[in-house]
Design a protein that fits this description.
- Helix content is 49%, strand content 17%.
- The protein is an alpha+beta fold.
- The strands form 2 sheets. The protein has a 6-stranded antiparallel β-sheet. Strands 1-2 form a two-stranded antiparallel sheet.
Length: 277
């Protein structure tokens, strides 16, 4: 059946109506896509713009762009100037800073990690928190024959390690208690503390002292001395630690604690995070 191009949808056969509806659905642009088009246009032009100019540039209905821009302004993703033009909002700036800092942090921490490994002559790790676990984010092997079983990507329960306690030391007391209540587990050596109250208090004290030491809790004859890397709000975002034979930390704890604390402080200084002190 031949259908005149001027025939309305109501007059068209049912199959053609469905085909037209499917095409419309496929061509419809989602709200988030439109929002990204607005943000991309402002980013690419590099200057504030009015709603009409934006709508014309992205090929969207003016009424639609008005609604999207109002929503973005309300959420602080866009800012509206006195002449009614809009520009990128402060919230985007904070997102950008967070992303940039994450990249900078890994570079800064990696540099300091290798430096500390050379100075101490031991294996050094940078660790972070992954839910109920501590995760090794980066690692520099020491020059000796001492072998460390935990490699990059290794995850262990928070209560097994010096770093694990530091990583939650900034949390409110009840949150620490609740966390250790469900995540504390016995270690292979049987020496890891599992009492939530003891763990919570030791985590608080360790962060306050900026040093945490564990020996033989997760691995036999292996010790770890860690210091927190805290952001400008005092939140422990990562740790830097020296992993070494248990006997060494017993014989000369002051040397290793001083070295690891200095490294953590240097990372914070480079990142501009020392204001929390």
């Amino acid at each position: 059946m031949k259908v005149d191009a001027k025939t309305s949808d109501m007059d068209a056969p049912r199959g053609l109506q469905k085909a037209g509806e499917a095409t419309a659905r496929r061509s419809r642009v989602s709200g988030i896509d439109r929002a990204l088009q607005v943000l991309d246009y402002l980013y690419e032009t590099g200057s504030p713009a009015g709603v009409y100019a934006i709508a014309k540039a992205i090929g969207a209905p003016l009424s639609t762009v008005y609604v999207i821009i109002d929503d973005l302004v309300e959420k602080n993703l866009l800012s509206r100037n006195s002449d009614s033009t809009v520009w990128l909002g402060a919230r985007l700036y904070h997102y950008g800073l967070a992303y940039a800092r994450s990249l900078d942090f890994l570079n800064v921490a990696n540099h300091e990690m290798h430096s500390l490994s050379r100075v101490s002559g031991e294996t050094v790790q940078v660790c972070g928190r992954d839910g109920d676990h501590m995760m090794v984010l980066a690692m520099a092997d020491g020059p000796g024959h001492f072998q460390v079983t935990s490699r990059v990507g290794t995850r262990v329960p928070l209560n097994w390690t010096a770093s694990g306690r530091l990583l939650v030391g900034h949390l409110p007391e009840q949150e620490r208690l609740d966390l250790f209540e469900h995540c504390a587990k016995s270690s292979p050596t049987g020496r890891a503390v599992i009492d939530p109250a003891v763990l919570s208090e030791s985590a608080r004290q360790a962060l306050q002292a900026r040093i945490s030491i564990q020996a033989g809790e997760s691995d036999y004859a292996v010790a770890c001395v860690a210091s927190p890397i805290c952001d400008d709000k005092g939140i422990c975002v990562a740790t830097i630690s020296i992993v070494l034979p248990e006997q060494k930390i017993t014989d000369n704890p002051e040397r290793y604690t001083a070295e690891v604390k200095s490294s953590a402080e240097r990372i914070e200084t480079v990142m501009g995070w020392r204001s929390h002190s």
